[in-house]
Structures are given as C-alpha cells and as structure tokens.
Design a protein that fits this description.
The complex is a heterodimer of chains A (about 110) and B (about 120). Chain A is an all-beta fold and about 110 residues long. Chain A is built from no helices and eleven strands. The radius of gyration of chain A is 13 Å and the shape is globular. Classes of the chains: A mainly beta (about 110), B mainly beta (about 120). Chains A and B meet through β5 and β10 of A and β4, β5 and β10 of B.
C-alpha cells in the first residue's frame, strides 16, 4: 500500500523554528516534494529531495532519509504569513508523474 | 508568465447534472494532472494526461468520470450525473514537456464543486 503520515496540526511562535515531519511507505520511491497551501488557494512548490541529506533554500530547508522513509521540512525565522498547510508528497514511480500526498500539516504561527 | 488556469473557480450543480472543469497548463507545459481534495482530506491523484493521451488514470473512479487533453484547448475533467459525494476541490497541475516523473508540478487555483 501507499501511506504518507504527517502531524495534523502544529503551532509555533513568530521568529521561532519549526520542524514538520513526514514518514512514508510507498511501493517505490522517485523523490519527495513539499508544498505550501494557504486556505482556499493552490499548493505552491517549496522543495524537492531525491538523495539523502539536507536541501536549503532561504528560510526553508528539507531533509530526506530514504533508508528510514523519513523527511522533514524546517522553517526558520517564522513569519505570520507562514501560517498554512504543508503537504508532503512522494513520487512513487519513474513511469508516471503521479504524486501521493499526505493529509497535510496545518501550521499556525502566533505572535 | 501566466500560471495554471482553471475555470470555473466555483461550480454548483444539482444531483444528476454534469460538471465540466477546465484546465489550461502553464505556457510550454504539455503534461497535465488532476487531483481531488475532499473536505478534511489530502490531495488524491486522479489522472495524468499528455496531449491527446491518457498516461495514468489509476486514480479515476470507474464510472461517471472522464478526462481529456485535446491537441488544441484546455484539459477537461468531466463528471456525469454528479452526486453529493463529488463535492470537493479539484486541482489541476502541469509540468514541463521533459516528462520526467521528478518534474515539479505547478498547481492551478482549483475548482470548488458543490453538489446540491
């Protein structure tokens, strides 16, 4: 089966650092994506990992461990506008562009 | 640069009617994906299309749902004889013509379908 798990909700304080975890069990693995989705809007691409390790992009970083089926998204210097739902998605096969999404983690940033 | 366009943004249908959702990919993109997001659930893959071809429809319900991406014009997701359970947000995404499964997918704003 295909399964992707993320915490449902998280709360953090403006200016702080937050880590959103994602674990996956899929029939294959061809890369992992993180998207941000504000309420009522389209998901927007944040990061992509296919090799183990950390990918840094400004205030956002994403980490992957393929042997553990684990990824996290790290958000630094949190801002109020970072309040959104963060979606972890796995590409399970090189034969199709299909993405399998987790249910998303809704992050609330408080002043 | 125009992003992925979807219309209508909101669609209301009565049970038994047909719903047609349209998606125009980003300029230069030739791969289109449709996903459905039910209330309180994550995005679920429905279908992956290239121009005039359905590549993967493993997520499409067996009945009432169909999709096409003609040579000219937008991709269409068609739902016949809608039922209340079809109420959801339907998102379209597109990716570049390289066709690599690791190409980033860019999402449109979605169509929110409400079935009365």
């Amino acid at each position: 089966g295909q399964n992707i798990d993320q915490p449902t909700e998280m709360t953090a304080t403006e200016g702080a650092i937050v880590q959103i975890n994602c674990t996956y069990q899929t029939s294959g693995f061809n890369g992992l994506f993180w998207y941000q989705q504000h309420a009522g809007e389209a998901p927007t691409f944040l990061s992509y990992n296919v090799l183990d390790g950390l990918e840094e992009k400004g205030r956002f970083s994403s980490f992957l461990s393929r042997s553990k089926g684990y990824s996290y998204l790290l958000l630094k210097e949190l801002q109020m506008k970072d309040s959104a739902t963060y979606l972890c998605a796995v590409s399970p096969s090189s034969n199709t562009g299909k993405l399998i999404f987790g249910q998303g983690t809704t992050l609330q940033v408080k002043p | 640069n125009a992003g992925v366009m979807q219309n209508p943004r909101h669609l209301v249908r009565r049970r038994g009617q047909e719903a047609r959702l349209r998606c125009s990919p980003m300029k230069g993109h030739s791969h289109v994906y449709w996903y459905r997001q039910l209330p309180e659930e994550g995005l679920k893959f429905m279908v992956y299309l290239q121009k005039e071809n359905i590549i993967d429809e493993s997520g499409m319900p067996k009945e009432r749902f169909s999709a096409e991406f003609p040579k000219e014009g937008p991709s269409i997701l068609r739902i016949q004889q809608v039922v209340r359970g079809d109420s959801a947000a339907y998102f379209c995404a597109s990716s570049p013509p390289s066709g690599a499964s690791t190409d980033t997918q860019y999402f449109g704003p979605g169509t929110r379908l409400t079935v009365l």
